[in-house]
Amino acid sequence: MDNARTQQTGLAAMVHESLMQAVEKGHLMALAAAEALGDETQAVLRTRHRLLTMQAADRTFVRYAVLDEGLELITSSAAPSDMAAQQSLLQALRPRLAQMPLASRQALVMLPAEDANQAWQVPLLLPIPAYVQAAAGLPRSEGYLLLTMDMAYFLELYRDLDLRQGSSIHLLGSDGTVLVEMQGDSLSLPPSTRRLPELAQYHADKGHQQIRLADQQPRLATWRRSVGMPITVVISQELRQLRAEHRSNSQRIWILLTVLTAITVLAALALTRALGRQHSLFQALEAAHGQNQTLIAQLEQEKTRALELAACDHLTGLHNRRMFSELVASHLALARRSRKHYALLYLDLDRFKHINDTLGHHVGDQLLQAVAQRLRAQVRGSDIVGRMGGDEFALLVTAMEHMGDMEPLAAKLLDCLSQPYDITEGMVCHRLQVSPSMGIAFFPRDGHDVDTLCRHADAAMYASKKAGRGRYTYYDTGLNPSDGRSWQLECELAQAIAGNQLVLHFQPKVRLDDCRIEGFEALVRWQHPQFGLVYPGDFIGLAEKNGLIVELGNWVIRACCRQAAAWRRQGLDTVPIAFNVSPLQLRDAAFPTRMATYLMEYGIRACDLEVEITESCLVEPLDLAVRVLSQLEGMGMRIGLDDFGTGFSSLSQIRSLPIDTIKLDRSFVDDIRSSPEAGVLVTSIITLAHNLKMRVVAEGVELRDQLVYLKTAGCDVAQGYILSRPVPAEEAQRLLCHGVLEPA
Question: What is the pTM of this model?
């Protein structure tokens, strides 16, 4: 019941508010009509035009008429056919207005006309405020505005409301007369004599009351009225229907509660059964866990035995690396008490990777199996054959009478393993031609233990590859006398980078027109605790081979930033420090971001550094290198092309790159004195670079004749031993303070 009252109150307030807005618009029209009371023709015309415009903006009002104080018509929007009905309505109004004091005249609503065509049109009479004719000096006059409201249009706006069944909307006059009603979504006109006196006797603006209408059914009615509002809004609904809905809702609730109770009981029963089943399963799981622990212990024992038995290569059936090393070690232990000779042979298949990549791993595996079969067939049963991994095999030849006996065996193996191989893959037969590269080391001449023999045999095998492949080579200490040093450097390079064993030396760049230092090139050195100062040629290749070149390059960049920041803190007039960038760094899209981080970390400017690239950086993908270099140039960093003329870059590539400086390779400078063609080429390069708005730096200048020629040819900057060798940071600081560097 409370929900019904709340819904009816809201609906009554909404309809009443709409009526109030309509009456307020009528009062505005009454204000606009006040000018017509002055009896001036132009004022009447202006008022008529204004009222017609306001009427057209609101379809609730279908007609209007402006009346004077005596209810005489001044102007109207009614058609000639409606004038008679309007006059009869005015005649009925005169007695009613005569009984009403002038000061208390308010808006009045009257019964609709008897004409069926105008039955939905309810007249609304509004007083017009007094109008003072100030210009003429006449007394003020009063009047009325008669508006005709279209109740059908007004209530049509509420036909789409979702009203309860048996609900209705009534609009009442001030005496309780029913003007119009809406049952559900249908409109109807009650008899003109029908009234609701039950509601007229209540003076409150709003409220609820149980009433009976013509159908004698008790209804819950909600009314809403206000002062100055001649129409009362009544929303009502049959109590029988409300009680029926309440009973229906109660039944649904009881049914829902019953169903929920049943579901809860069933769920509790199911949960009880599930818990019981889970308990039994848990007990079974504990028993199974005990059995599994026993099985796991047995499997661990079997696994240990399997690992001990896994001494063979799964693909070829030969000994694997671990078993081969153990067997060789046992044979060498016996060989120490024998006068026989032993030889360890390493062999690797030439261009096997190309076959693997082209024909697939399945064909490569079959080829390895065929090589293993041939190798095993060519040696004695006492010899040991193993696969060391990939396409690398090893052979220990035991108990030879003479070291020369190895020569025919090596030639026989080379010839046998170089014969074509017929490999079948499905319906396709491949005829493959491969050759082995072999290295041979003798015990005890070339080593007294397995590791030494294997290392020397492997070095001899790589010597065969360097000599042209498809051959065998005996180990000789003269093959690579620096192997030990290179191996040690390779192993210690990563630790040297992390442990700050690297140092920078700086070689000045000197302008040829005034001999002033305009920059330094940073050159990295390795201050090795055992070998002393190691130059880049000995470890740059190792860094590229072991994937440390990017880490090394980052160390150099940070060291350059640190040195530039130190000189700036000392108040020196700094010059750009140039450093080399590897192709791998240029392929990193995050390299410019990392450079910006370094600049911010050390508090230096981008112009304090200069990036030097080589022509090897200009290979594909070129677009990524261009993008990275452009970002560096956008930061304010200069870009130089080092070793120009020794690579494969084209002039079109150089023109498209953001390069500021070209560095002539030292090979051009060395040939200036001995070759006129070299001088012409140097001059042409300098002219071409200047036409492309680039500066030219000549490196490797060691003679005064070279320096004079370069200056005559228009070269901008030179660096070399005739000016200064690469010097430590302290000496470079002294040169920077002096500023000018004369040739030696």
Answer: 0.45
Instruction: Give the helix/strand (H/E) hosting 221.
Output: strand 218-224
Amino acid residing at 256: L
Work out the end-to-end distance of the chain between its first and last CA atoms, rounded to an integer number of angstroms: 114
Write the DSSP assignment of 267-332 as a string of letters. HHHHHHHHHHHHHHHHHHHHHHHHHHHHHHHHHHHHHHHHHHH--B-TTT-SB-HHHHHHHHHHHH
Angle at 168 between CA 162 and CA 171, to 5 degrees: 120
Instruction: Write out 475-530 in H/E/C secondary structure.
Output: CCCCCCCCHHHHHHHHHHHHHHHHCCCEEEEEEEEEECCCCEEEEEEEEEEEEECC
Q: Name the residue with tokens 């059964």.
A: 273
Q: Residue 603: left if φ>0, alpha if ψ -120 to 50, beta else—which one?
A: left
Give CA–CA dist 201/619, Å, rounded.
102
**Predicted confidence (pLDDT) per residue in 552-587, tens digit:** 999 999 999 999 999 999 999 889 999 999 888 888
> Between helices 352-359 and 361-377, what is the axis angle to 10°?
140
- Report the residue count for the chain: 744
Backbone phi and psi for residue 318, each to the nearest 5 degrees, phi listed first: -80, 170
Record the tokens describing residue 67, joined without a space: 């009346």
CB within 8 A of 288, min separation 6: which ones? none
Select from 331, 472, 456, 479 the least CA-distant residue to 400: 331
Cα distances (Å, whole numbers) of residue 17 to 10, 264, 610, 725 = 10, 50, 80, 99
User: How far from 340 is each of 4, 183, 333, 476, CA to CA, in Å?
Assistant: 117, 125, 12, 21
In the chain, the amino acid numbered 348 is D
The contacts of residue 589 (CB under 8 Å, 6+ apart) are: 624, 627, 628
* 350-to-108, 379, 484 alpha-carbon distances in Å: 115, 21, 26
3-state helix, strand, coil in the chain (%, to 5): 50, 25, 30
**Nearest-angstrom CA–CA distance, 75 and 364:** 110
Q: In angstroms, rounded to a whole number, what is the distance separating the alpha carbons of residues 220 and 235?
A: 8
**Packing angle of the helix pair 406-417, 361-377 (nearest 10 deg):** 150
Residue 83 has pLDDT above 70, yes or no: no
Residues 619-674: pLDDT tens digits?
Answer: 556 778 888 999 999 999 999 988 786 655 556 667 778 888 999 888 888 888 77
Residue type for position 572: L
CA–CA gap between residue 396 and residue 122 (Å, rounded): 123
- Print burial letters for 35-65: b (CB count within 10 Å at least 16), e (below 16): bbbbeeeebbeebbeebeebbeeeebbbbbb
Residue listed under structure tokens 């494969």: 648
Specify the DSSP class assigned to residue 195. B
